[in-house]
Design brief:
Pfam families: ELFV_dehydrog, ELFV_dehydrog_N. The protein has 411 residues and is an alpha/beta fold. The chain has 13 helices and twelve strands. A seven-stranded mixed beta sheet has the order 9-8-7-6-10-11-12, with helices on both faces. A five-stranded mixed beta sheet has the order 1-2-4-3-5. The chain starts with a helix and ends with a helix.
Length: 411
C-alpha cells in the first residue's frame, strides 16, 4: 500500500472514531493548493536543462503551512500529497500553530554542481515566492536539501519581500537558524521514547535498541541512547549493518563512519545482513530510514517489544495489524518524529521576535512539547479505546476539524 493510501486509510479510521460529518471529512482530505512549475537553468557547460518543481499545500486552518522541500529523482506526487497531509496532523499532534505542506524538485542533486543547485533553487524560489510566506507557507530542508539550500531560498525570497529570516527553517545559524535544530528530530525521538517507556515503568538504561538508518536522525538517537546508558546492539545504513550483543560504542562508531564513510570494518562490532536488522533481537526497534520497511513479509519475525517510528510511514497497515496482534507497542511517526518540526517552530518564533534562544532552552522546550503531546495522545487512546496510532490521528484530526469548524469553513 503506498503512502497516500495508508495515510488516507488512517485518516478515515480516525474520522469514523471521531464521528466527523462527511462534508468536513472530505474538505480535510482535499489539499488547499497544488503548485507545479517549470524550472529551466543553464548548466555549467552552457546547455539548458528543465526540471519540474512542485509544492503541495495541504491545510492552513491552524496556521501557516509547513513542510520540507526535497530534491530527488523519483519525486512522486502521491507520496508528497501523503507527506503534506501527514504534516497537517503532525503539527496538530505537537500542538504547534501550523498546517501541512511538502514539495520538491524532480532532480538528482548528486548529478548537479553546487552552482547548478544554487541556480535551480533560486529559479524555483522565483516561481513560488508569491505562494509561500512567513504567515502562509514556511519551507524546510528534506531529502537532498540542507541548510545551504534554505540560505539560497531565504536570499532569493528576500529580494522580492525584504529581509525575511522566518520564511524558511533549518537555516544556517549565521542566518538566524536555531541552536539544537540539527539534533531536534533525534532528540525528540528520545523524549518520545522516554515518555512511552515511563508508562511501562521502564527506562532507556535498562533496554537494548536496534536502529535502522544511521543518518542524522538515527545517529543522534543512537548517541543520546548511549549517553543515557541504553545498549544499542545493532545499526544499519545504506553501506551495511553491524551488531554487538554487549552494546556498540556509538561515539567510536560515529568517528569510524566519519573517517571511512561506512559502518562495516568497525573494530567493535560484527558485520550482519542489513535485512536482518528489523528482526534482530532487541527490546526497542527504531526505524529511521525509508517508508514501508515493516510489511507483511517481515512483521511476524520482529522480536522487539516496542517500535518507535522515527521515519515517515515505516510500518505499512498489514504489518501494523500483525504487530498489534503480537502485542508489539508502536509509537506512531506523526508523534515520534515531530521533534524536527517543533524546533522548526521555535526557529520561526525566534526569527519573528528577533530574539534567539540558547540551546538549553530549545531542548527544555522540546522536551516539554513532546511530553505534553504524549499525554494528550494517551488521553485520546483512553477516550476512544484505541491504539497509539489512532490516538495520535484522532488527536491531530480532531484539532484541525475543530479549527476548520470554528472558522466556518466546513459548510
Amino acid at each position: 500500500m503506498n503512502a497516500l493510501a495508508a495515510t488516507n486509510r488512517n485518516f478515515r479510521q480516525a474520522a469514523r472514531i471521531l464521528g466527523l460529518d462527511s462534508k468536513i471529512e472530505k474538505s480535510l482530505l482535499i489539499p488547499f493548493r497544488e503548485i507545479k512549475v517549470e524550472c529551466t537553468i543553464p548548466k555549467d557547460d552552457g546547455t539548458l536543462v528543465s526540471y519540474v518543481g512542485f509544492r503541495v499545500q495541504h491545510d492552513n486552518a491552524r496556521g501557516p503551512m509547513k513542510g520540507g522541500i526535497r530534491y530527488h529523482p523519483e519525486v512522486d506526487p502521491d507520496e508528497v500529497n501523503a507527506l503534506a497531509q501527514l504534516m497537517t496532523w503532525k503539527t496538530a499532534v505537537a500542538d504547534i500553530p501550523y498546517g501541512g505542506a511538502k514539495g520538491g524538485i524532480g532532480c538528482n542533486p548528486k548529478d548537479l554542481s553546487v552552482s547548478e543547485l544554487e541556480r535551480l533553487t533560486r529559479v524555483f524560489t522565483q516561481k513560488i515566492h508569491d505562494l509561500i510566506g512567513v504567515n502562509t507557507d514556511v519551507p524546510a530542508p528534506d531529502m537532498g536539501t540542507n541548510a545551504q539550500t534554505m540560505a539560497w531560498i531565504l536570499d532569493e525570497y528576500s529580494k522580492f519581500h525584504g529581509h525575511s529570516p522566518a520564511i524558511v527553517t533549518g537555516k544556517p545559524i549565521d542566518l538566524g537558524g536555531s541552536l539544537g535544530r540539527e539534533a531536534a528530530t533525534g532528540r525528540g525521538v528520545i523524549y518520545a521514547t522516554e515518555a512511552l517507556l515511563a508508562e511501562y515503568g521502564k527506562h532507556v538504561k535498562d533496554l537494548t535498541f536496534a536502529i535502522q538508518g544511521f543518518g542524522n536522525v538515527g545517529a543522534w538517537a543512537g548517541k543520546l541512547i548511549h549517553e543515557r546508558g541504553g545498549k544499542v546492539v545493532a545499526v544499519s545504513d545504506i553501506t551495511g549493518a553491524v551488531k554487538n550483543p554487549n552494546g556498540l560504542d556509538i561515539p567510536a562508531l560515529l568517528r569510524h563512519k566519519e573517517k571511512t564513510g561506512k559502518l562495516i570494518d568497525f573494530a567493535g562490532a560484527d558485520v550482519m545482513n542489513s535485512d536482518e536488522l528489523l528482526t534482530h533481537e532487541c527490546d526497542v526497534l527504531i526505524p529511521c530510514a525509508l517508508g514501508g520497511v515493516l510489511n507483511r513479509e517481515n512483521a511476524d519475525n520482529v522480536k522487539a517489544k516496542f517500535i518507535i517510528e522515527a521515519a515517515n510511514h515505516p510500518t505499512d497497515p498489514d504489518a501494523d495489524e500483525i504487530l498489534s496482534k503480537k502485542g508489539v507497542v508502536i509509537l506512531p511517526d506523526i508523534y515520534a518524529n515531530a521533534g524536527g518540526v517543533t524546533v522548526s517552530y521555535f526557529e520561526w518564533v525566534q526569527n519573528i521576535q528577533g530574539f534567539m534562544w540558547d540551546e538549553e532552552k530549545v531542548n527544555r522546550e522540546l522536551k516539554k512539547y513532546m511530553t505534553r503531546a504524549f499525554h494528550n495522545l494517551k488521553g485520546m487512546c483512553h477516550s476512544h479505546n484505541c491504539n497509539l496510532r489512532m490516538g495520535a490521528f484522532t488527536l491531530g484530526v480532531n484539532r484541525v476539524a475543530r479549527a476548520t469548524q470554528l472558522r466556518g469553513w466546513e459548510a
